[in-house]
Amino acid sequence: MAGTVSVEQAARHWVNPLRDPRDKRLPMIAGPCAMVIFGVTGDLSRKKLMPAIYDLANQGLLPPGFSLVGFARRNYADEDFEKVVIEAVRKHARTPFRQEVWDSLAAGLRFVQGSFDDDAAFATLARTLAELDKERGTGGNCAFYLSIPPNMFPVVLDQLSKHKLAQPGPEPDGWVPWRRVVIEKPFGHDLASAKALNALVNRVFPEETVFRIDHYLGKETVQNILALRFANELFEPIWNANYVDSVQITMAEDIGLGGRAGYYDGIGAARDVIQNHLLQLMALTVMEEPTSFEPKQLTTEKIKALSATKLVYPLDETTARGQYTEGWQGSEHVVGLHQEEGFDPNSRTETYAAITLRVENRRWAGVPFYLRTGKRLGRRVTEIAVMFKRAPHLPFDQTMTEELGQNALVIRVQPDEGITMRFGSKVPGTGMEVRDVNMDFSYGEAFTESSPEAYERLILDVLLGVPSLFPVNAEVELSWEILDPVISHWAAGGKPEPYEAGTWGPISAEEMLAISGREWRRP
Ligand code: BG6
Q1: What is the tens place of the pLDDT at every residue in 196-231?
Q2: Domain of 144: which CATH number?
Q3: Ligand 1 pocket mutation pick from 215, 377, 384 by most atoms within 8 angstroms of CB
């Protein structure tokens, strides 16, 4: 019929209605596309990815023809797959369940069964994507989410390349659909393996089409580090070695590792958290102001920050590692790592890691950065504490200022999101007693909007093709360069030091700060 435009053609002429450069407050909605999740039956997919996709749909941020293809070995018919997705959505989505949103999402669900080395399954996948384009107008655009163990990457990447799914090339009318790949950490286990992995991925997907997930960068409070630093005048003058004494970055968890042995044993806290989340938090804290918030400019500054970041030696004194033993988490008695299901009873994997870093540039020269993370600690908390130098002179009687600590600015990443400022204040009364007080900004009180889940933001950015919140190759490699000597040093040493579950980690971590007369903040 002359004059009729198919959904397939319409998708190729789609213009983002909210992409109005004059109003930057409007969230952008993703253009026509599909997403394929490999490992769709796994934990991450059920708890984070599928709920986040629903939440995006619920906010109207996905295109009407959005299609989600699950790929896994298990034999689901499309309808069974639908049940798995709806169950995940009902259990884990952030926003309320709405039947009409679900119905339109469900219409685009497909399932492809097969193992990763199965050529026929990848041929089916290619056919399914082509059909979805015809039926629902995805524009042939597609993001492949590898929610699978890294040892499976080579085979899946080869298959995507072999079946022309990674870079399909221009269509007869010149239209070039986009293809992107999303990968989850671990990005290697040291610098050499990270380089090998990056080379492998880049053989099939050019770097600008690779989206590496560090879910911390998707958190509101982490993005707020940039707002705090670069949208205000108040902090910049004191954000340097003239005023800052030290910086403590903590990511503490109260959970243990039961059920995670397969991933965690042999990996440990430093590789699991410091290499990615904590070094990214540090990069955002120390970096210079980017010339704009274009992804390239932001990445340039983060790369400069990581290039200037060095370990402080000797590692025996400036690092600490530990392994939790049985203890009490509140009123619950919990077992130690060696008794956790699946762990080697002689495992030397650290569940607590702390390191000392410095930043070699004019702004930060001489300021120690202490990074720590651990499982089964006192409570779940992630924060960046910028500790300021003490006033050079106090014109008060010393006994009146005994309870005065250092001024601090604490960025509370989670769970109680906000910012605390600590400073000294006069205690009411006739004397001149000065004591620490806190001034608080809390997200919950200041804003009525609730924060989106990190995965909502990150998945949307993948579909929009905006890479600002994804670490590039160079950042991953620089992070390993920083961490590798610590891991080798620990590997050559004895066992990690035991610490009781429910405490704040091994004694050596306290000593690590005590050598310079400092101590950890009790979050
Ligand atoms: C993951 C780590 O990257 O982050 C886990 O592999 C950790 O070990 C998790 O539990 C913590 O994430 P969040 O968002 O709960 O702080």
Answers
A1: 999 999 999 999 999 999 999 999 999 999 999 999
A2: 3.40.50.720
A3: 215
